[in-house]
Amino acid sequence: MTGIFLSYRRDDSQGEALHLFDDLSKHLGRDQVFMDVTGIDPGKDFRKAIDGAVGNCDVLIVMIGKKWLDSVDDKGRKKIDDPKDFVRIETAAALRRQIPVIPVLVQGAAMPHSEQLPGELEALAWRNAFEIRHTRWEIDVAELLKALKKVVKTSGSKPDPDEDKRSGHAIGKWPVALVLAVGGAAVGLVIYVLSSGGWPQRSSGPTTRISQMEYGTNRFGGDYRSLEASAPQVCQDTCAGEAQCLAFTFVKPGVHGTTGVCWLKHRVPPPNPDVNCISWIK
Question: Which ranges of 105-160 does DSSP label H, i.e. alpha helix?
Answer without folding.
Answer: 137-148
